[in-house]
Structures are given as structure tokens and as C-alpha cells.
Specification:
This protein is an alpha+beta fold and about 90 residues long. The chain has two helices and five strands, in the order αβββββα. The protein starts with 12 loop residues before the first helix and ends with a helix.
Length: about 90
Amino acid sequence: MPPASTPLFKHPLPMLELWLSEQGCQRDTDDQSRWFCDRPEWKAELSLEETTIDVRYTYTDGNTKRLSFPYSLSRQDLDDAIFGSLE
């Protein structure tokens, strides 16, 4: 795995998939570019687009939030932004 400070676009696809798996995400069986992640406070659907990772959060209170992150961010920055504590 490249260092966490490496931009995500420099990660080979298998390493990107490993990173998502290590975060507890599961790949959609029908759409290889879509992943799902469950946390106690939220659930997320991640979509691996051409230039971004799009994330749709659904919180336990029913609220939703959509965010988009460019692959130019480091894996550490994305790790913190996507999987860190969001409110």
C-alpha cells in the first residue's frame, strides 16, 4: 500500500479496493464502482466516479448529506473526511 500521504489517484485499483475493505466497506454485487459502509451514527454509499469519490450519508436521524472528494486528496485526508466523525 502506498503511504497514506499519497494522493488517491496514485493508488492502483486493487489498493483502493483494499483500503475500502479495511474501512469495513462492502462492494455492491451489481455495481463494481459502488461500495457501502455502516457506522453506528451513519450509513454511506460510496460511488467511485471518474475523477471523484461521491459519498451519500444517511444518518440515524434520517438526515442525508452528499459530498464529493477528488482523487487528488491523500488517502489520509480522504480517510479522515469520509470515515471520520461527521456531523
